[in-house]
Amino acid sequence: MTEKQANIRINGDRLWDSLMQMAKIGPGIAGGNNRQTLTDEDSEGRKLLQKWCEEAGLTMGVDKMGNMFMRREGTDKNALPVYVGSHLDTQPTGGKFDGVLGVLGALELVRTLNDLNIKTKHPIIITNWTNEEGTRFAPAMLASGVFANVHKLEWAYDRKDAEGKRFGDELKRIGWLGEEEVGARRMKAFFELHIEQGPILEAENIDIGVVTHGQGLWWLEVTLIGKESHTGSTPMHMRKNAGLGMARMSELVHQIAMGNQPKAVGAIGHCDFYPNSRNVIAGKVVFTIDFRSPEKEILDNMKYRFEKEAPEIAAELGLEMNIEVVGHFDPVSFDENCLKAVRNAAEKLGYSHKDIVSGAGHDACWINRVAPTAMIMCPCVDGLSHNEAEDISKEWAVAGVEVLTHAVLEIAEIVE
User: Fold this and answer.
1) Quick check: pTM over 0.70?
2) Mean pLDDT, the chain, integer
3) What is the pLDDT of residue 360?
């Protein structure tokens, strides 16, 4: 690394201002954001990103899943591009930084190269993946999954939200249905910067998390069918209480996860009770289970145990039961050469770092199947995410983007 390269630093004020400007789109009710995928707010956020990228001299491509690709040319137009990015969509009660930091950090990377007139051999492409969160249209990481050929395009188009609206129809409605075939692009590498969404880095006063692995997950949707009846007049021994079934299965999920410590987590997240009336015993309950582990054997064994023991609970209570897999990916090991570039960058810039495992799923988990991939994480306050109170410091953001910038430059190759 030359002295000029070693002195490359981003504009932290500009980065922070961009984050705060994007946060004005789809504001939440408690200081965060509600910019769910394929909403009008999502479209507005995309247009702002497009405007900023065009001002930075980039050209845009959009594929049939609405994935945005903003290209900065390299000196060798035949060289494979280095892709950098994350997602702009949020949870219904999401924060200002989850995903967004990775996209706008990539923008700041490009702006910095423009400021310093730095050229790279390989093109650099800012990427915004559609529907990473998966809250409106399950599963999560939907568009990157289609890109990596995990999901089929028409299957993705047929995903429906709670109001029965189709993904494909909503993508067209907001004006972000591109013509480019999904997955047609080839990559030299992909880098994703993200907030940790956990407490480790802050607690240990570490600047940078080098994400070596991503946890695999099983998402199971369970439907229990009992019998709706009056809570006051139905004898206890004659009830078919779907709510009781869910309660016992929630305890089962907890026991399964605790039995596989420290490399496992599990919980029931979303649930719907029918008819959801205070004086009617629930006749139907639909709920989701989230099992995660960085070890495939543990992950699969947790799913197997639930599928074996939960039907026994249902049978004991006289309930019908159905289990459907609504999301899955195996644990991920990221590319060692890309990880080395991240470590090199942190060390040369004087930032502390440690290897960590991502507890959450990210687009990088799918892209890792088709290109060398690495993730970088910065701390977040109290490890809080998927919450409007999610917060980071400007210093943490700057450290993450500077490490991202130098890691990308190592792979994209500066031209002197």
Assistant:
1) yes
2) 96
3) 87
- Give 91's Cβ-side CA count (13 Å radius): 14
Cα(120)–Cα(123) distance, integer angstroms: 7
- Number of Cα atoms under 13 Å in the Cβ half of residue 181: 5
Rounded distance between C-alpha atoms, residue 161 and residue 256, angstroms: 30
Identify the burial level of 117 via C-beta atoms within 10 angstroms of its C-beta, where 0-12 means exposed, 13-18 middle and 19 or more buried: exposed
- Which residues have a Cβ under 8 Å from the Cβ of 34 and sit 6 or more positions away? 26, 27, 28, 41, 90, 91, 92, 93, 94
Non-local CB neighbours of 80 within 8 Å, separated by 6+ positions: 122, 186, 187, 188
Residue in this structure with the two tokens 């989701």, named with its chain if needed: 288
**H-type helices in 24-178, by residue range?**
40-55, 100-115, 142-147, 153-157, 167-173
Give CA angle at 75 (335, 54), nearest 5°.
90
- Confirm if 325 and 218 have CB atoms less than 8 A apart: yes
The answer to whether residues 135 and 91 touch, using CB atoms and an 8 Å cutoff, is: yes
Residue in this structure with the two tokens 């060692």, named with its chain if needed: 336
Q: Quick check: 5 pLDDT over 70? A: no
Tens digits of per-residue pLDDT, 164-196?
999 999 999 999 999 999 999 999 999 999 999
The alpha carbon of residue 6 and the mean position of all alpha carbons in its chain are separated, in whole angstroms, by 31
β-strands 124-128, 265-274 pairing: unpaired
Over residues 121-133, the mean pLDDT reads 98
Report the SS3 class of residue 192.
strand
